[in-house]
Amino acid sequence: MRVLSIDGGGIRGVLPATLLTEIEARTGKPAAELFHLLVGTSIGGITVMALTVPDSKDPRKPRYSAKALDDLYAEVAPRIFSISGRRRLRTGDRLLHEKYPNEVVEEVLDEVFGDTPLAAALAPAMVTAYDTERRRPLMFKSEKAKREPEWNLPMRIVGRAAIAAPTYFEPLPLETATGERWTCVDGAVYANNPAMCAYAEALKRIPRKDLFMVSIGTGTPTGPLPYEEVREWGLVHWARALRDLNVDGVNHVVDHQLEHLLRPHCYHRLQAHIGHKHMPLDDVDSTHLKTLRDAAAKLIAERDSDLDAICERLLQPA
Fold first, then answer.
1. CA–CA separation, 248 vs 7, rounded Å?
2. Whole-angstrom distance between the N-terminal and C-terminal Cα of the chain?
């Protein structure tokens, strides 16, 4: 069983999109045909659904290639992560309220997915979110949506739940067909790297020895935070750094766990290293986008033989 896992990371979602563009180019096949299970958090969840949403003209094929999705992210990001001076003042730049209005991101999700239901995914897909009402993780699964109609939400709604990053976008309130009330926020609060979630889901279907996983990150900061800098930090300074530290720590821990749970040739982690102290989710400046694409190109060059091995495995009969 071939599994794809994609981290969360806002605009840094261009990194996995670029890497998947390379994999699709080398194999000559779309991701929906290469993987038997696709799992994503936040922008990774959007990527997973976009790669498996059927084309309206030919429902047997995906609507988006990885390259088309990469281009789309660069196109729509300035729309989504745009804020007026008036809103910036009213929200205290995230201190008092969510930074961005919901209307634009919901409009983009409608353009990308329309009313396509999750059950229509061309390959089994799973997207993470978190319900603050019941304090529990949520896993939106296309296969479950086929069996249980109350879980068969439109992809645009699942996407909105997936990217409701606290302080960036408002939570998404949902009322299920059974009358349950959910308040959904971004699954990155517990699984920014959803590879362990993907591992657990895969083991429900196949033995561990038959599992092959590709886990793609959205970049990790390498800039140090030395003692001399952090020793006198208070809440204001730590508030910015803690999210990065939490996410980076979770990403490394999940990678470490899977390195030991799966044999080396059965697990590949593709993660770019970026020499920043902080990794913003919403920096759509052209210089930052170039930094991300350069990091992806460097990773592709450095992991060329690994990518060949990945593609060879992905092309083997199931």
1. 11
2. 7
**Pick from 131, 187, 127: nearest CA to 156:** 127
Tens digits of residue pLDDT in 118-169: 999 999 999 999 999 999 999 999 999 999 999 999 999 999 999 999 999 9
Tokens of 229: 């800098």
- Give the distance from CA 49 to its chain's centroid: 10
Residue 143 to residues 62, 193, 307: CA-CA distances in angstroms?
17, 21, 29
| CB-CB contact of 3 with 211 (8 Å) | yes
pLDDT tens, residue by residue, 171-182: 999 998 788 899
Helix (H) or strand (E) holding 6: strand 2-6
CB hemisphere CA count around 179 (13 angstroms): 0
This prediction's pTM: 0.95
d(CA 274, CA 172) in angstroms, rounded, equals 32
Rg of the chain in Å (alpha carbons): 19
Q: Element (H or E) spanning 303, and its range?
A: none
